[in-house]
């Protein structure tokens, strides 16, 4: 017996995540695969995603923040974990306590990590992140030598050991990405000059791993593809053999028969073209639905597609369902697996002028994540 449809929910098919990990390894031929589960597993639930990814053969997991990695470790995840974005005054003690690899982007971060390790009497696992052209997180080229010198000094004292060297691509063009690959190799050469050899080099995320084999190196970091979504606009999930893991759905909360000319929602940007039925859907921008979806995005109501009528409000939006035989409580699917006929996240991204990454990660706390029964029983 299937579970009753919720008022609003994101249904997560973790078996799809498991299958997607295997498919990405097949597509990329990756020697090692790190699955990125930052931002609550791209909105899918970090723990469920981590478990599913490891079941699919992932070799390691990555998070942006240390607290994300600690939460996974305390929940029972024993696989290698890497975190790479830190508060200026980050206390690295939790990373040492929970055996989490820390990526550093500066001498200051490296010194802080080494001091924490010395205070605990342990050796910290560290990776160096270098900026090769994205101009954000990562040590810039002018700091590679000071970072290498500090790393050699701390390694000699036994407070740190290097587990990897990595960077992140801009995905601007093949030429730009290959130029960044060259800079990563240059950073590796700097480390070697100071007697430091990185056991793992990694650069490619999903997009580059699929399109630029030279960037795969020792390990590939897969994010969006694990969740069954394409990282590029000119390729679909179906074309890549990936299965979207999230279905965002709810129920019709109310119905109203209205006359021609009736205004709908704020500013009356939509008026009924004739006598029609309006269906109320309990999702709004407080739940992560972009206001830019107003009047352009489609949803599936009772198995048929209809466009949002008027403005998306904080808690709700309205759909003009015409004369369709819709009932209160009927299912509404905002996005899911397009092979079932419902809108896809990629369609929503085009309608809203954004990317699929943003849509799945912006869902608010009022939207519970529910694992499909078969997957939930396995977890």
Automatic annotation (TrEMBL):
Please give the catalytic activity noted in the UniProt record.
Answer: L-alanine = D-alanine
Residues with PTM N6-(pyridoxal phosphate)lysine? 38
Pathway(s) this gene product operates in, as recorded in its UniProt entry: Amino-acid biosynthesis; D-alanine biosynthesis; D-alanine from L-alanine: step 1/1
**Record domain Alanine racemase C-terminal: where:** 245-372
Q: Which GO terms describe its molecular function?
A: alanine racemase activity; pyridoxal phosphate binding
Question: What is this enzyme's EC?
Answer: 5.1.1.1
Pfam families tied to this protein: Ala_racemase_C, Ala_racemase_N
Keywords associated with the record: Isomerase, Pyridoxal phosphate
As for family, the record states: Belongs to the alanine racemase family.
Protein name per its UniProtKB record: Alanine racemase
Native organism is Rathayibacter iranicus
The coding gene here is alr
